[in-house]
Write a structure and sequence with these properties.
Elements (H helix, E strand, L loop, with lengths): L3 H8 L3 H9 L6 H14 L5 H8 L4 E5 L6 H16 L3 E5 L5 H13 L4 E4 L6 H9 L4 E4 L18 E5 L2 H13 L5 E5 L5 H16 L9 E3 L4 H12 L7 E4 L2 H13 L9 E5 L13 E4 L2 H17 L7 E4 L2 E3 L13 E3 L1
Parallel strand pairs: 1-2, 1-3, 3-4, 4-5, 5-11, 6-7, 6-8, 8-9, 9-10
Antiparallel strand pairs: 10-12, 12-13
Helix pairs in contact: 1-2, 1-3, 5-12, 6-7, 8-9, 10-11
C-alpha cells in the first residue's frame, strides 16, 4: 500500500508539502499541488482519515438531524445533503429527532460528541433547548426547511451565527388560495401544519393574504391543524366538513396531510373535484398518479439539501461571517384536483 512518503518521492516534494495539499493546512503553489494530486492518483494513495482529523482538528463529517426521514420531501432533502457532502469529501451521520424538543437536544449532543464538524438541522416547533446547546458549544449549524428565531443567546448579547435555508411558503400558499378563488370558491379551508413551526406560520400567513387579495373574509372556523401528519389531517378534515356550512375547496399544507385529507374525503364518500376542490403544498412522485391529478406547490428539496451543505462549508471556512437566510422559490404545478381541465403546460415558477 503506497504511503505519503511514496507520494512525496513521486511528486518531487517533501512529505510536509503532501500533507499540506491533502489537509489544506497551508497554501501550496498550483503546479506543486497538481503534481501531488497526480501522484496520489497514479499511486492509488488513500489518506488516513484518522490521522488527517488529528492534524486538522476536523473529522470531515456532518451531522444531519431531520425528522420524518420517510417523508418523500425530506427524502429529497437527504439526497441533496448527501450529494453535496460527498462532492466536498464529507460523510454524514444521520439522526431522527422525531420532532420532539427533548430528543432533538439529545441528538444534537450525541452528534457533537461524535465530533462532527458541523450540523444541519430541521428543528422542532420548540427548539429553545437545542438552540441554547448549539450556542453554548459554538457548534457550526445550518437550520434547514424550518426557520428558527434565535435571538441574543450568547453571554455577550450577540446573536448566534446560525445560517438558515428554506423554501418560500407564504406567496405559494397565497397563490393556491387565489387560484381556487378564481374558480369561484368562496369558502376555502386550510389544513395547517404543526403549531410553532415556521412553515406552519408562513403558510397560514399566505392563506390569509390569498383570501384578502381575492376579497374574501378570513373565517377562523375554516382553519384547522393537521399537525403535519396524515392522521391529524384526517381528523381535522373531517371536522371541517362537519361544519354547518363546510368549505367547497381545501388547501393542505404538506404532503402527509394531503394523504390524510384524501382519506377523510373517501370515508365521507366525497369526490375530488366534483364535490370539493383540493390543492396541496408539497408535490410528490405519485401526485400525478391520483385521479384526479393533484394541483400542488413543488418545493426544491434536493437544492435545499445541497444549499445547506454549502452554507455550512462557508461557515466552517469563515466562522465570523454574518449569518445568512436563503430562501428558494417553489413551483406551481397545475393539474386537475382544483377542478380545472388538464393543462398542456403544468409547471410554472411561483
Amino acid at each position: 500500500m503506497p504511503t505519503m512518503a511514496d507520494v512525496a518521492r513521486s511528486a518531487g516534494v517533501s512529505v510536509a508539502t503532501v500533507s499540506h495539499v491533502l489537509n489544506g493546512t497551508r497554501p501550496v503553489l498550483p503546479h506543486t499541488r497538481q503534481a501531488v494530486l497526480d501522484a496520489v492518483e497514479q499511486l492509488g494513495y488513500t489518506p488516513n482519515g484518522l490521522a488527517r482529523s488529528l492534524v486538522t482538528a476536523r473529522t470531515r463529517s456532518i451531522g444531519l438531524a431531520v425528522s420524518a426521514i420517510s417523508n418523500p420531501y425530506f427524502t429529497e432533502i437527504l439526497q441533496g445533503v448527501e450529494a453535496g457532502a460527498l462532492e466536498h469529501g464529507y460523510s454524514l451521520l444521520i439522526a431522527d429527532p422525531h420532532d420532539d424538543p427533548a430528543h432533538e437536544r439529545k441528538v444534537a449532543q450525541l452528534l457533537h460528541e461524535r465530533r462532527v464538524d458541523g450540523m444541519i438541522v430541521a428543528a422542532s416547533a420548540r427548539p429553545h433547548d437545542l438552540v441554547a446547546y448549539l450556542t453554548r458549544h459554538a457548534v457550526p449549524t445550518v437550520f434547514l426547511d424550518r426557520l428558527v428565531r434565535t435571538g441574543p443567546e450568547t453571554a455577550s448579547g450577540d446573536a448566534p451565527r446560525f445560517d438558515q435555508v428554506c423554501a418560500d411558503s407564504a406567496e405559494p400558499t397565497a397563490r393556491l388560495v387565489g387560484h381556487l378563488a378564481g374558480l369561484g370558491h368562496r369558502r376555502i379551508g386550510l389544513v395547517a401544519g404543526l403549531p410553532g413551526l415556521s412553515t406552519t406560520r408562513e403558510r397560514m400567513t399566505g392563506y390569509r393574504h390569498g383570501l384578502a387579495a381575492a376579497g374574501l373574509p378570513h373565517d377562523e372556523r375554516l382553519v384547522v391543524h393537521g399537525d403535519s401528519a396524515a392522521e391529524g389531517a384526517q381528523r381535522a378534515t373531517a371536522a371541517l366538513l362537519a361544519l354547518a356550512v363546510p368549505p367547497t375547496a381545501l388547501v393542505t399544507a404538506n404532503n402527509a396531510m394531503t394523504i390524510g385529507a384524501l382519506r377523510a374525503l373517501r370515508e365521507l364518500g366525497l369526490s375530488v373535484p366534483s364535490d370539493i376542490a383540493l390543492c396541496c403544498f408539497d408535490d410528490f412522485d405519485w401526485a400525478d398518479l391520483f385521479s384526479p391529478r393533484l394541483t400542488a406547490i413543488a418545493q426544491p428539496g434536493r437544492e435545499l439539501g445541497a444549499r445547506s451543505v454549502q452554507l455550512l462549508l462557508d461557515r466552517l471556512a469563515a466562522p465570523d461571517r454574518p449569518a445568512r437566510t436563503v430562501r428558494l422559490p417553489c413551483t406551481f404545478v397545475h393539474r386537475t384536483s382544483c377542478g380545472c381541465p388538464a393543462q398542456p403546460e403544468e409547471g410554472t415558477d411561483s
